[in-house]
Structure formats: structure tokens, C-alpha cells
Amino acid sequence: MKTMRLEKAEDGFAILTLDAEGSMNVVNDAFIAGMEAATKQIVVDESIKGVILTSAKKTFMAGADLKQLVNGFGTLTPQEAYAFSKRATDMHRAIEQSGKPWVAAINGLALGGGFELALACHRRILADDAKAQVGLPEVNVGLLPGSGGTVRLGIIAGMKIALDLLLSGRSVGPQEALKLKIVDEVVPADKLIDAAKAWLATGPDPVKPWDVKGWTPPQKKGMTVPEDSAAYMMYTGGLAKGGYNQPAPAAILNSVFHGLQLPFDKALAVEGKYFAKLLTDPVARNIIRTTFISKQAAEKGARRPEGFPKFEAKKVGVLGAGMMGAGIAFVSANAGIDVVLIDRDTATAQKGKDYSAKVLGKLVEKGKLTQDKADAVLARITPTDDFALLDGCDMVVEAVFEDTAIKAETTKKAEAVLPAQAIFASNTSTLPISQLAQASRSPDQFIGLHFFSPVDRMGLVEVIMGKQTSKETLAKGLDFIAQLRKTPIVVNDSRGFYTSRVFQMLIHEGAAMLAEGVPPAVIENAAKAVGMPVGPLALLDELTLDLPLKIVDQAIAEEGDKYTPPAGTAVMRRMKDEIGRSGRKTGGAFYDYPEGGKKHLWKGLADHFPVKQDWDVEELKKRYLYAQAMETARCLEENVLETPQDADLGAIYGWGFPAWTGGTISYIDTIGIKKFVEESDRLAQLYGPRFLPSAWLRDKAAKGEDFYTPASETRVKEPMPA
Asked: Would the pTM of this model clear 0.90, i.e. be above it?
């Protein structure tokens, strides 16, 4: 057995140690075959009185091979997917019904299929270590536990605890796991095997409660118990509140519901059918492909040019101590890098450092960081107004006001002090990098690093290649992002780059709907219904109308009649110039913000934008998704983007495009490019040329080409906890 080894002992307690090739144990065909063989051997060997299941790795088991699962959509029939689930389910049942007691000695992380394996054992003992987390996070990838997890967890922990864990996908540490009764014992890591042997020595009954004749399911009375009925109604309402775009939560609720009422093996069959349905659904494929496979590939350097030595920044200058600069300073210092934080005066720079102190203080309060470590991070940040302190920096990240002249002046002042080999990065969201690089002494060492706010919580960095940016500079920029443990996408220079350019489509579509007479609340709720975190009018209030209008005016000044202003421009100008409402900072635009009260849509909107009755929510939802997807397709056509993976990562992690789609390009592929083009033509006739497919896209549709090619064989594990 390549994935595990079985060792017998004189006391009759065998140790089955999981030890697959690679750094982690994962659930795959080889593991299941090994476990089947080991269980058969244990059953027939009369010298084995009990089994201790543990791991030779730092983790117990990380779960399923997602690369194997991502290809479920389009390649597996529901029957084949069910058979795939049933094999693992039967493997767990064989453990339960082996006639020998099994104890899981969980020495580290046990997630997904790894924790399902532990649940199939007769006892679970967890190491008292913060890294020893347990949980069933399958909902995060559009699936449910497919080998008994929903059924066993429901019976062992009860409906409410099971649904909390399954619907959130969260993992829990040793003490919480013990409190929730999903593990039976927590002991120091070096006492795990001793504790397992001690339990086996008590001669425990190897028959699970549900295998005892006469056992009745916990909710055998079904919905006739008022408390149970009310609880399920509440959970159903909660799912409705979150929208119906993701099928996994509803499947989990149904699986737990049946699992607590049906005979055990029938409940397992129901779970398997729900798993098969989800595995052959495009939503699971989309989520797994983008949020885990593409994300991990990007973080491991999928876009890094080869042939350059690894770069490690030891000292970084951050120019500008506003919200962005302060955030960049924090994540850099937190990664162990010395930071020189510069602003117009030391007091302003100190305010930027104070942001780090605030973030670190909260981490200390929550017990996630010791005060000593927090002090060490803070000590790495030097606030100053003296550019001379940039001497010796490996890299500078400029985060000053979005103005070409100010950025040019700042670049020259910094480069007068910087070493010749230092990389200069601009954290701009809209200004062309090639244009900004004209102020640099070394345009080949100039690159865009567009961070997202708040920097300490947003994981994406948009890396912008200027026309003269060298491959070596790109490699260094990506190495720096890896140091910060963030996710990079690489784009080529253009107006608004990728994320800012496509994000605008969302807010302009919402503004255009207002001019058409769609009620403001419907505009906001339609966006939320497709899975956007915030409605476009609320977003505009936070941004202020000044920013999108400045971008439009800049484009008009540079391109004149060649430029077509976005659909919502007229509404934004009217709000700002005629009505005098421009955003939250100035008291409100589309919303009012009563002191001490909850924000609400401004009642005066109806006077300026009369409501009509001929709107269709499904049409509005489609417009939001199609507008953003079409603009992303244009970015690929124009080579602003080079890969669909970058497009989808940027969409989901940059501005919150709905995760169920997999991103803007996965959304097109899921619909089918031919149907997408046909529907876009219809939308263009009704609402304008922003929906009109290009000749390039029509050609792809005619050839039946998808944006994604079939996935490679790279093996990626289930999600790790943060």
C-alpha cells in the first residue's frame, strides 16, 4: 500500500499510518484502494484487536484532490458521480462495520474527506495544537461532504451545530471541536498514541449506535415536532436571503434533513445523490477552478518569467501614507520587510504608521498575535519626510494622489536617492504605467502594482506591465507579492487596466437603469441577487461621483470623439452638477445618511428620475453580468489580459464578481459562447453598443471555441484554513 502502512503490535493494537507521496495525505483513488485493502486485512487478522489511525505528515489529511473533482462537470454522468461518491462512502462503512474499534489520532489538520474519515472511526482524539483544525469546508467549493459527512455530523453533533459548520465551511480548533463534541478527547501531540491505546485498552464496543438493531433516527417524527420544523424554516429563509445562485447550501440543508430522519444507509444514499448533482453542476467546476486551482497556481508563480533568480525585498520605500500607502506599509512590515514610509511631513507619515498599530492592536486583542510580535512588526516601519532614507531600498511603491504631475515629481525625488537596481512600482488604479514611466530614469524597472483597499484584508494585486517594463522587473514584482502572501494577476497597460475598467461597467449599468425609470431599490437588489456584495448606487456613494467622472473626462480630453462615455455618465453628471449630490463624503448622493440612523435611498431620486413600471428583474440581473463579461472579453481581445485565469481571479477577488460564476470569463464559457453572443446582440439592440460583440468574439462563437482549454493534471488539495 503506497499511501499508508500497517504495523501490528503485541498488545493487538495495530497502527495504520497515512503516508502518501508528497507533503500531504489526500483523498484520491490510490488512497481509497489502500484503505479498502488495509480494512480487509484488519478484518480477517484475528491478532488485531483495535486500530489506531494516524498520519506520518504534519497534517492528518487535507481532503480530496480538487483537480480530479474539477473535471466532474461535462465529463461525468450523475450516475458515474454517484458511484465515485459511493466508493468512498462504502470505504467508511467498512471501517465502521469491521468488528474492530478504530480510533483516529488526529495529529494536525483534518479537513473535508480527511475529517469524514475521522468521523467514520469509533473515537476521535485531537492534538492540542492551534494548527490541528477540523472541519468540512466543501460548501466553499460548491460541494457537500460526499462520503457520509453530513449524515454523521448531523447525528453526532446535532442539527444546529452540523448546519452551522457545514453551511459556513469553517474549521475549528481543538477546544471548540471538543466543546461541539465532534472530537472526543484533546491531548498534547506527544500523547496522542498513548491516549489512543488507553481507550482501546478499555475494550470499547466496535458497533456504532446507528448499527445497533432498533436504532431510530434523531428526528424520526419528521416535521411534526414544532421546534424542528421552525428551525428548518429559519434555515431555509437564511438560504433564500443569500440568493439561489449557489446550489450547495440548499443541498447540504436537504442532506442533513434527510440524514436525521432516514435509516442510516438510506441517508447515505441520499447524500450521495446530492453530491453527484453538485459535482456535475458547472457552479462547483467554476468555483474550484478559479478560487483554488487558478489561485494557487498564481500564488506559486504561474505568470512569473523563467530564468531570473528569486528576488527578496529586504527594505521597501512606500511613498504616500494615506489609506493605500499605510496598508502597503503594514503588509510589507508584517512580511518581515523594513519599510520607509514617506509623506509631506513626519506627522502625516506617523498617521500612516498609526494605522499599522491599530491593525496589530486588534490582532493582539483577538489572541492572534503576541504583543512582542506586534511590536516587532511596528518597529520595522520608519515614518519620515526625508527621501534620503530611501537609500538602500530594493523597491519603492508609490501611492500618492492620482495625478500624473504629482507622481512624476515623486518618482524623480525618490530615484535621486535609490540604488540603480531598485524597482519602482506605482500603486495606480487608472493612470497608464507607460505614461508614468516617462518620469523614471529606468522605464524598464518601472511597473504597476495596484493594491486593493483595505490592503491588509484584500488579497489581490493587479500587476501592470508598461510598454518598457522588463521581464526581470515582472519577476521581481511577482516575487515581492509572494513575500506579502497575496494573489497576483498580470495585465498589460491600458486605460483603467483591467479591474478598474470592468468594475466601471457595474456602476454605470446601475446608473443607466436609474435613467430608464427602474426603481432604485430594484437596481440595488437585482445586483445583490446575482451575488454582487453591494449595489451599484451604494458603491457610487462610497466612491463619490467625482472619481468615475474624472476618469471619463480624462478619456475625453485624450481621445476626443473617438471615446464613447459609459452608459451612466449622464446620470452621474446630473446628480453632481445639477442636483448637487456627489457622494457619502459630502452628505450623500443616491443615499441619505441620517446621524445615528441607518442609511437609506434618497427619497428625492423619484423627483429627478421618475419610476416606470416596465422593468424585469431577470433582465436587470442579466445586464449586470453580461456588461462586465463583455468588457472582460474585450480586454482579452485587446491583450490587456493574456489568460482567462487572470480575468477570473481579478473579477472575483478584485471587485467581488459572484463566485458561483467562476469569474467573468468562466461565466461566458458556462453559458456557451454562441448563446452569449446571440443574447448580447439582443441586449445591444435594446440598451446600447456596450453589449455588442466584436468580430473577434463572433468568430470564436462560430468556431465553437471556449476560453478555457481542458484542465491540466496538476494536483491541488482542498482549501486550507486561513
From this structure: yes
